[in-house]
Amino acid sequence: MNILGISALYHDSAAALIKNGEIIAAAQEERFSRKKHDERLPFGAIAYCLEAAGMETGQKLDAVAFYDKPITKFTRLLTTLTERAPRGFPAFQAAVPAWVKDKGWVGAALERVLGRQGVSVGQFYFPEHHVSHAASAFYPSPFSEAAVLTMDGVGEWASSSISVGEGHELKMLVEQRFPHSLGLLYSAFTYFTGFKVNSGEYKLMGLAPYGQPRFVEKIRKELIQIREDGSLWLNPDFFGFLDGFTMTNEKFAQLFGGPPRTGESEITTREMDLAASIQVITEEVVLKMARYARALTGKSHLCLAGGVALNCVANGKLLRSGLFEDLWIQPASGDAGGSLGAALYVWHQVLGRPRSVVAGRDAMKGSLLGPSYSRDSIHEFLKKNQIPHHEYRGEARETFLAKALADGKVVGMLQGRMEFGPRALGNRSILADPRDPKMQSSLNLSTKFRESFRPFAPIVLQEDVAECFEVVKQSPYMLLVDQVKSSRCLPRRGDEEKLPLTEWVNRPRSDLPAITHVDYSARIQTVDRERNPRLHRLLQEFKKLTGCPVLVNTSFNVRSEPIVCTPEDAYVCFMRTGIDVLVLDDFVLLKSEQPPWQETVNWREEFGLD
To answer: How far is CA 524 from the centre of its chain?
Structure first.
């Protein structure tokens, strides 16, 4: 039985396909369309999922599940904007045509899309948005029963929820309703500090350690009331998202000393302190929600999803709190993952099909659920374009790459299936030596072309994580922040906060300077032999050469570009950037051997700025 899940028409559209309950394929549309956070119907992702499942022309999908209820969402939009009349009328005028034209008829639109691909549909389902998030968290988890916490901006009416999962059954117990939303509050500060909403929230999180949380009490007094169960109330007088086109309004600006920062302008102490302050508030709410979820459900394990679950700093605090024996976080926690959750919800909850749970092993297959490319197709691409290359079989590739990394080379890696979710986990990654104190600056400026303050994540051998980090034992999906082992850290000099941002960033803080953030933390990915054997071997070879079981891992793209999908995407990014070595599965390309690169377009303008 084939069930296709879809998320679309807001941001990060995606498709996922399960076959008899097994996750077969999942991918975001942006990887195919090359439009960051593409919200359109996921034509490319659907085509890929059907192909991965072996669906042929004339076959019938048993079910299609869309990740929310569009009509209910439209009702909320109309209700909110009419209640805010007359101020809400311009937003009303802008929103209604889009719903009438596209979003209100998503079932019919999907049927047409699938019909053009020669596939018919047995049944359509529309689970609620936070039900889809909860299903994406619980059903693939390694837990037979668990509390489930979802947090994001807003779905239909819900902005967060607590559910309980037992076996194949999932039951929502309580929900927080719009406009009172932790996700929208965080996005308001994202907007105000000059970053793009639904895109730059992770930048705000990365900026927080540079600041002091001096606005916390002002936020508590003026903007939000936080109850002991984690539910909250937002003061509507300070926000623009209820009746306008911006997240905050003039009253918000007056509260924090002036207008929002303009994108790409200098980041000041105000922005750093705002980031630090909203991070403190976020962690407080998440911990209170989690504590209430434990009391409400009585479960000792917790699953998380929704955009706020990508706040890996809060996740790390939650892990260290000891509230639960263990956590499992959906690697595609944002809206893209709703496609998978919707399909799984239909299979398990609607159709009543049982789960098969293996203790300690999730069902996400390392989140490596996207397309892969055969040796022959890669070789044909290289020959057709007369691209110089070398082929390495078996462990020879890892031996060569470990030596290149130890020599300070930057490696772009395309191997196997593409990752599902926002994190590159080794199959569409840029890798580098974390011991180089200049590597963070070099990668940010000459490879990623992004803001200098942005930290880089470490990948570490699962068996060696305790040598490098304090608490985390397993983090295969790069969703937990932990402190670098104190024995590896260098003492503070005491003048850090007086330094210019670029100088502070580039000052070594440990013997792994390229991955140690200014607060001595790191966002960790542990690598085991089962999920990614070739990446595991590479780390082993690097450790043999250097004694270091860690590499820098960042996504294979430049700023504002989606992560690369195809060998051609990877080659273009390789030639545009400071990457020294490109890996296309068994083929290795050296920048020094490539012909001169000529651009036909201004690719930075093509991608814009996120």
So the answer is: 14
Q: Which residues, other chains included, contact 119 with Cβ-Cβ below 8 Å and sequence gap of 6+?
A: 50, 55, 57, 59, 60, 61
User: What pLDDT does 242 receive?
Assistant: 84
Instruction: Classify residue 268 by its DSSP letter.
Output: -
**Burial of 386 per CB tally in 10 Å (0-12, 13-18, 19+):** exposed
In tens, the pLDDT along 277-324 reads: 999 999 999 999 999 999 999 999 999 999 999 999 999 999 999 999
- 307/38 Cα distance (integer angstroms): 16
359, burial (CB in 10 Å: exposed 0-12, middle 13-18, buried 19+)? exposed
Cα-based distances in Å from 380 to 40, 278, 411, 609: 32, 51, 22, 34
Alpha-carbon distance 314 to 319, whole Å? 9
DSSP for 108-168, please give it: HHHHHHHHHTT-EES-EE---HHHHHHHHHHTTSS-SEEEEEEE-S-SSSEEEEEEEEETT
- pLDDT at res. 604: 67
Alpha carbons within 13 angstroms on the beta-carbon side of residue 1 total 15
Cα separation, 555 vs 523, in Å, equals 13
Using the predicted structure, report yes or no on whether residue 97 has a pLDDT greater than 80.
no
pTM of the shown model: 0.96
Number of H helices, E strands in the chain: 21, 23
Q: How far apart are CA 17 and CA 62, in angstroms?
A: 11
Helix (H, G, I), strand (E, B) or coil at 74: helix
Taking alpha carbons only, the member of 6, 119, 126, 115 closest to residue 68 is 126
524-539 burial, b for 16+ CB within 10 Å, e for fewer?
bbbbeeebbebbbbbb
In whole numbers, what is the pLDDT of the chain averaged over residues?
94
DSSP assigned state of 434: T
Q: What is the mean pLDDT of residues 495-514?
A: 89
CA distance 538 to 544: 10
Strand, coil or helix: 551: strand
Is the link from the previous residue into 476 a cis peptide, with omega within 30 of 0? no
Cα–Cα distance for residue pair 201/151, rounded to 1 Å: 14
**What angle (nearest 5°) sits at the alpha carbon of residue 31, between those of residues 569 and 275?**
110
- What's the first-to-final CA gap in the chain, in angstroms? 39
